[in-house]
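Please fill in the sequence for the structure shown.

STRUCTURE ENCODING:
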């Protein structure tokens, strides 16, 4: 199963610390070695880095630390290919324009027999179920709304479309338009909201710690979303299966929690991924 990383903050923030642990899962501490991508919103534009080599050893991944980029919305992905060859065209996150805004999307899981009709506005370039799902999702939105809907309506629409897509298999995803960040959980998605009083965090995949009190202001609020927790000394929250959330300015503004929510263990979630292949 691929793994996701995303960040939503109320002030431009770099993701160097989180990415340092996350990237090691791309070939060192885990087996997601079929490429990676990371994208940063900067004003009305996006800065996108992708590579088909393992993230843990990619010189492009090194650039994230060497040239820290501050952003309020970031999406990253390390890939373990299930559909589509290893190529840049099949590497997440995917990017499209809608209503004069860039949209970023990344997915892990596996969708079987998912073949929606060709869209009018959006069509996949590569051969992945993930990009097909992204194009379908945006196509549904674009045909439904002449202008970008407000946050509440957007969240409701995204929840409905995700409900459709997940009928075809395992569907964990994150999507952002640079203002908000939406996450949907099909098996394993965790998050943490860091805010004052800040403390020390220690990575699970590397012997590195950081004192966020020395790196932030009392007004900062940063939400980090990841497939699995990145630190071992902080309290991460787990999304339930089929739960959706919308982050804005570093906090949850909308969420949809299923009745009788289920929170699988890590092993159960990984088994769900294995069975979905």
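FILLED IN BY: designer on duty
SEQUENCE:
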């Amino acid at each position: 199963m691929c793994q996701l990383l995303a960040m939503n903050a109320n002030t431009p923030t770099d993701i160097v610390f989180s990415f340092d642990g996350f990237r090691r899962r791309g070939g060192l501490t885990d087996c997601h070695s079929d490429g990676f991508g990371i994208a940063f919103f900067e004003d009305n534009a996006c800065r996108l880095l992708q590579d088909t080599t393992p993230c843990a050893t990619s010189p492009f991944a090194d650039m994230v630390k060497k040239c820290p980029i501050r952003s309020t919305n970031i999406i990253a992905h390390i890939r373990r290919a299930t559909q589509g060859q290893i190529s840049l065209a099949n590497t997440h996150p995917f990017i499209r324009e809608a209503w004069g805004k860039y949209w970023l999307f990344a997915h892990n899981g596996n969708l079987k027999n998912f073949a929606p009709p060709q869209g009018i506005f959006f069509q996949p370039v590569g051969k992945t179920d993930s990009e097909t799902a992204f194009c379908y999702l945006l196509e549904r939105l674009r045909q439904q709304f002449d202008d970008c809907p407000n946050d509440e309506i957007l969240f409701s629409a995204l929840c409905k479309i995700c409900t459709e897509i997940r009928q075809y298999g395992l569907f964990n995803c994150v999507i952002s338009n640079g203002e908000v960040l939406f996450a949907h959980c099909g098996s394993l998605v965790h998050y943490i909201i860091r805010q004052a009083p800040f403390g020390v965090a220690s990575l699970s995949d590397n012997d590195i710690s950081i004192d966020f009190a020395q790196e932030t202001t009392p007004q900062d609020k940063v939400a980090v979303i990841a497939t699995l927790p990145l630190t071992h000394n902080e309290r991460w929250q787990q999304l339930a299966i089929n739960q959706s959330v919308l982050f804005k300015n570093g906090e949850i503004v909308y969420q949809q929690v299923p009745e009788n929510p289920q929170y699988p263990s890590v092993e159960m979630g990984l088994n769900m991924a294995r069975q979905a292949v």
